[in-house]
Amino acid sequence: MAALVLVLPRTASALTGIGFRLTQSWFGWTKEEAQWLLDIHQGTLLFGRDYRAYYVVVIGTGLLALLVTGANMLGWFGTRRGR
User: What is the pLDDT of residues 56-75, one digit of tens each?
Assistant: First the structure.
């Protein structure tokens, strides 16, 4: 369920974070020219500066939750089945 909820914000964050760096490195954009990508990446465009920190915490916590559930599905935690 967490994966379905987090797919859009995680994708947007990943693409805009990569895009921000690539536009500066490859295309020579200044930080001011690429600022709109950073605003999307940090959630500022959608939630404003006041709630940006909460957005970043939710996205980061969601990533950790996805890592834990993935590791759990691989059987890295808990009891071993089949004994």
Answer: 898 999 889 888 888 888 88
Q: Does residue 82 come out as left (phi exceeding 0), alpha (psi in the -120 to 50 range) or beta?
A: left
Q: What is the DSSP string of 17-68?
A: HHHHHHHHHTT---TTTTHHHHHHHHTHHHH-SSSHHHHHHHHHHHHHHHHH
- What are the distances in angstroms from CA 51 to CA 9, 14, 42, 55? 15, 19, 10, 7
What are the sequence ranges of the domains in the chain?
2-73
This prediction has a pTM of 0.73
Query: For residue 9, which of 73, 77, 61, 50 has the smallest C-alpha distance?
Result: 61
The residue written with tokens 């605003």 in the block is 39
